[in-house]
Structure formats: C-alpha cells, structure tokens
Please model this.
Amino acid sequence: TKKQPQFTAGTSRSNAFDLGVLDGSGSFLDTIGGTSITTDRQDWYKFKVEIPSLLTGLSLAGTSIGSTKIDLYSDRGSLSNTPFTEAESLAVLQAGTYYVRITPDSTKLSTRTPYTLNVTGRLGITNLKANRFTIDKTSLALDVNSANNKVNVTAFQLENNGDFAANGVTVGYYISRDGVLDATDKRLTNVTTVGTVARGIAEKVNANGTITPGTPNIVNLPVSPTITLELPGANDPFWSSGANYQIIAVIDPDRAITNETKRDDNAIASTAITVTKAGGIDLTGNGFTSNTSVSKTGTVTGSFTIQNLGGVALAAGQSLKVKLYFSKDATVSSSGSDLFLKEIVVTKPIPANGSVTENFSFALPTDDDATNYWVDNKPAGSTQLAGFIGMIIDTAGSNILDSNVGNNQNQVQDGKDRIAVTITGL
Model:
C-alpha cells in the first residue's frame, strides 16, 4: 500500500473545514498547490461567531509558502465574493459564519507546499478603568446637617481597555475609612452618568507570533454640571477618629455592564479627604473615683464622668467604649505595658457642653496575664503593689469622630481620669 496525503481544508466554500466557534487559539496544518485541477488550488475553512467577537490573529506560517494568500469572507446576509479589508478583519465581528480562503503562490501552483494556518480570537469584552478624579477640596469641617457637607467632583478620567464599547456607563461614589472598597464603606447618593465609552485598540497577534499591545481609549470628562457629593452628617456613626478617609469612585457600581472584566481590580479610583468636626464632639474624662485599696481577689467599685466639651451631642445608643487599666506609673496606656481591667460601654446620650456619669463595679482579673503582672511588678518581699487605675475613652474603637482625641486619656490629675490605688494580698 502507498500512504495517501491527508487533507484538512475543503476545496470550496460549501465543503469548508469547520474550525468551530471563534474563542481562543488554533493552528491547522495542511498543504496547498500541487494539482492541475483549478478548483483544487484553494483551501477553505470556516468558523462561527456566536456573540460579537474579535479576530486578533489570522496568519499563515511555513518555510516555502512564498506569497500564498489568505482572505476572510462573511455571508453578510448572503454569500459575498468580496474579502474583508484589513480594517474589517480587525473590527468587531458580529454573530454569523465566516470563511477563510487560502490560495497558493502563483509560481508554485504545481508544487504541494505545507503551511500552518493560525487563528486567534476572543469573545468581546469591555475593560473599564477609573484612572483618577479631582474634587474641589481635600478637607472638610463636618456639620451635623449632611446637606452642609458638600464636595464637588470637578473632573474625571476613565479608560476602556476592552474590545467593545461600553454602553450606559455610570460612576458611583463611596466614602471609605481606608481607601479599600468593602461593605463597611458608605455609598453616597450621587452618580455620574457617562453614557457610551468607545472601545480601545485591541492587542493584535502578528503573523510571526509576536503581540502588538493594545491602546486604551482614554476619556477625560470635565464634569459639567458639577457632580456634588453629600457626605454624612457629623453625628453619623460612620465617622471614627483616626481614620484616613478616601472618596472612592467606582465605575458601573450596580454591575449593569455584563461583559465587563477585571471589575474588582481596575474599576476604582480614590482621592483623600480630611474631615474634622465643626464644633463637634470633644469627650474627656473627669471625676474618676474608686476604692483606693483593693485585694487582688476583691472588687473595684467607683464611677467616672465623661464631659463633652464640644458643640455637638453624642446621641443615645452610640456605644461609647471606656477601657480601664492598672498602671504602676501615672501614665495609663493600652499598648500592653499596663494591665487591662475592664471595658465599660456607655450608651447614654452626652449633650453638647454636657456630661454623663457612669457607675461601675467589677472583680479584678485573675487569669494568667493578671497573675504574672502582679508577680512581675510588685516589689521583692512585698505583698502589695501601688499604682493607678485610669480610664481611656476609646472613640476610635467606638467609631465616633472626636474633634480632640488628645484629651481622651492621661489628664495627669488624680480624680480626673485616674486615681491612686494599692493592690493587696499579692
């Protein structure tokens, strides 16, 4: 027997070899020429496009192909004998059937020449990215009324790195404590409507296998009329002291564009803003009292007063955390050098320029940390340890924006936010 040549491609459009759906890359080996039959001096392939797609590479490779030619056709509603131009080949291909015709070098009609057909394509995508935006102020003194807390977006730049235009594009805005978009951030009500963002120039797979990078379509939007963002009021529980606030812009926040890619990575831009309280909450400890001699197995009983020196009230139910520590010196710290005793949660309202008093009664801790603290710090041979019990108003941990965090602890006066105490029975 004699091995017969194997052919992949068809010899006409009607029997074209089916490459399947355009989504990915494929290479197909065959030969062209070497026959006296004119109708056999063509190779035909076809592929389908089910949703709008991009043909990023269509090429021939081979050591002896010479000027072998490749053409792309479409039914265009009916079979057409006009091949696509290069620009049409790089444009978005709509749903339908497409045909590839290979014709040999005119000088090699009688020579069977091997070749490789390379086809690369992908489904159409958008890839929107918010590059940056500007606001008219980088700091704001918050008013209790949110209608007075306005920031204007003055310009916006976004881009589309994808193959397709994006329609119905909107931009939503959030206020964040750390610049990382998550469920703890607060969405502002204002939305920028962008409309349609044209596609960029997609990357191209060249005949030699190299890739020509794509070019994004960059859109600069002077925001007119100006988008006005309304930040929460000064008493909103969102605000907390010590946070580094960011306003975040998110393209398509409601995910209306279904073929968007890299949504979580590339659709966010942020700009920093510093917020303070205009005559806001200013909490400080006062009137701290307790029994001044306590057995290590005894109970600490006393009270403290929290004063609000600011012009904004702390609303009822805001869960203000007050932490009590024992310190062997007059400086009470939460850094770990002092012994944590108790957390007390105050939910009573504290009026502007007013105060509230809280009573407490709790047993000293008896866990290993406490035992080690007493043993490590009491004088050698002694059964007692003198020091201070002091309070720290934890507005940051309570998500309460305090206009003066510096007076939340260590007022350095007995009877203000600390008291001298001796622990006995050690």
User: Anything to note?
Assistant: Helices lie at 86-90, 263-266, 368-377. Confidence is low (pLDDT under 50) at residues 1-6. The chain is about 5% helix and 45% strand. The longest helix spans residues 368-377.
